[in-house]
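Quick check before the chapter quiz. The format below is the same one you will see on the exam, so make sure you can read both the input and the output lines.
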Amino acid sequence: MHDANHSTSLFSRGMLAVIAAQFLSAFGDNALLFATLAVLKAQFYPDWSQPVLQMVFVAAYILFAPFVGQVADSFAKGRVMMVANSLKLLGAAAIGLGFNPFIGYTLVGIGAAAYSPAKYGILGELTTGDRLVKANGLMESSTIAAILVGSVAGGVLADWHIGAALAVCALVYAGAVVANLFIPQLAPARPGQSWRFTPMTRSFFNACRVLWRNDETRFSLVGTSLFWGAGVTLRFLLVLWVPVALGITDNATPTYLNAMVAIGIVLGAGAAAKLVTLETVSRCMPAGILIGVAVIVFALQQALLPAYLLLMLIGIFGGFFVVPLNALLQERGKRSVGAGNAIAVQNLGENTAMLLMLGLYSLAVKAGAPVVGIGVGFGAIFALAIAGLWFWRRKQ
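Here is the expected output.
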């Protein structure tokens, strides 16, 4: 059954290059966020500007969402990934050289937007069938490892020397660019498509319409968007919560706490893979409600150990909640609009949710709301939103 270019093992040179590039790229993204937050702190930017940093990144994702899928399909994906990583390198270097951090971080966001469909799309070109599932698993594992190591490295290095932290980020992106050179130059998937604005956006918005009209994919899109919007807001909440609740003012502690969430997500995802099928997707809903409850309890903590344990719990609930919803969207989306389009629409939904939630969070901080109060309110709203989604799903 194997044709020549698919008979490669999971650990072919091309696949290893993709996984390595993904690890370095994701490591850079996470380290750079915490290093840049340290820059904002050192330059006395107001607290409410911290989430704005992520908002410019997310806005780049949203603006380029209709086009990046076609870019990934029109050129060799390894080369698209290389250009995207070069943009990230440029952004990190700009922040390191003292340019406005928001402009530098926007460049990184544009690179990330172009990178996403190419990295997922290339797996199907390097391998097929059962190996594709395993390849996706490898990609996710390398991403989660990179998030863990990268965010902690960013915080620890920034405590030691902000300039060094930014230099390491630039070097890591340079490493990703080099890794991309080892990806075999495959033929473009769909060359010769129109680059006029209307045809490009039409197919994307058409895919949006199809997925939003279907009960199952809409349910999945709302669930995953709420989850990632909440996740990214929690990340920034931690940065302001740690000094208030625990009295610790370094850059590293929030990154350790973030790491606990990521470890929990891995455990929850593993449990979901064993306990939930596409037919029993609703089993993941109670975990979604428990995320909100756990956030409320967490916000009221004043000691480090229970904070660590609760964040791990939040991660476990999160992994259990989001993995089945992702699988549902990929499976149903693949049938109706194609996997690439489904991921692009999901990216748009998740990033729009992030933008809205970060905006609300930024406004709450600017208005002077106490951080603990924001945490409790945030958890309560999330639990109610998931409960509402579950109830609505039952009514369907």
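If your answer matched, good. The chain is about 85% helix and 0% strand.
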